[in-house]
Amino acid sequence: DTAVSQTPKYLVTQMGNDKSIKCEQNLGHDTMYWYKQDSKKFLKIMFSYNNKELIINETVPNRFSPKSPDKAHLNLHINSLELGDSAVYFCASSPGQISSGTEAFFGQGTRLTVV
Amino acid sequence: AQSVSQHNHHVILSEAASLELGCNYSYGGTVNLFWYVQYPGQHLQLLLKYFSGDPLVKGIKGFEAEFIKSKFSFNLRKPSVQWSDTAEYFCAVNAWGEAAGNKLTFGGGTRVLVKP
What's phi and psi for B7, nearest 5 deg? Predict the structure, then answer.
């Protein structure tokens, strides 16, 4: 019973391509997130959605476009991939907004390598 | 904006040794504090969390952490580590209030290697 699942787990692609990463949670949570973990393991939030509405966009390049078709899904589409986009991308969800004191549950991550 | 710093980037120790990982945050308001663990090749898992009440919190796998508000610290401890504790450990802070945003802010992580 995977609570937060991401696909694919690994993604290798060439510069300039467009790719998507999918995320689904079966926890019934209202809020979902995308985090980026760089090569130094530093984790930083990219986006946060609450009930399909964007509530955080942390100055991420507009080549990155999240899409939330419903509360259980938050997909990440990346246009014109660059070498610097190589990282591990983690999806997460929480029962409410983090600022209300809930905890986040993370997916297994998608390792994106741009060559 | 809040920030989180973890003092040790790498820690190497032997089995049965005691572990303490430092975490400090900068935010003047109310916070919730978390420690997550990432085993090799796996996702982040919650070890423990502090929301309110007793500042000494106990988590899974024998870990505990102490919130010291005056020091803005939330250090993680385990009295006797095992080889299976080899992992990356992340401290995270959720700051209350609209100005702080609805997000977890993570420290840079500490890689712990336990030698058998």
Answer: -75, -35
Q: Do A99 and B44 touch (CB under 8 A)?
A: no
Mean pLDDT, chain A, integer? 91
Q: Which amino acid is at A79?
A: N
How many CB atoms neighbour CB B73 within 10 A?
17
C-alpha distances in angstroms, A55 versus A44, A98, B31, B65? 16, 12, 20, 31
Token pair belonging to A30: 């209202």
> Which of B51, B104, B111 has its CB closest to that of A45?
B104
pLDDT tens, position by position, A29-85? 999 999 999 888 889 999 988 888 888 778 789 999 999 999 999 999 999 999 999
Closest CA to A42 of B92, B14, B17, B94: B92
